[in-house]
């Protein structure tokens, strides 16, 4: 959770930011503790990783295809 920790610390310290959560019953927002902020940040990173990984693999495949057309093997 080192990456998550650095994100949370940076937002809290350097950006004077807070991590908020909306209460389902009242609809009001409240600040969450560091543990919850870390959990949600880690989850966001995991959720975002799959689509990014897919795009990178597609880009690599296209680049390999292009290189094969430009520099065909003998």
Give a written overview of the molecule.
- The protein is mostly helical and 74 residues long.
- The protein is built from 2 helices and 2 strands.
- The chain has a two-stranded antiparallel sheet.
- The mean pLDDT is 83.
The span between the termini is 48 Å
Helix content: 55-70%
Strand order of the largest sheet: 1-2
Please count the beta strands (DSSP E, at least 2 residues each).
Answer: 2
Provide the β-strand percentage band.
5-15%
Rg, Cα atoms, Å: 20 Å
Helical run tally: 2
SS content category: mainly alpha
Q: What form results from the Cα inertia axes?
A: elongated
Largest sheet: 2 strands, antiparallel
Average pLDDT, rounded to a whole number, is 83
Residue stretches low in confidence (pLDDT < 50, at least 5 long) are none
Task: Output the helix-strand order.
Answer: HEEH
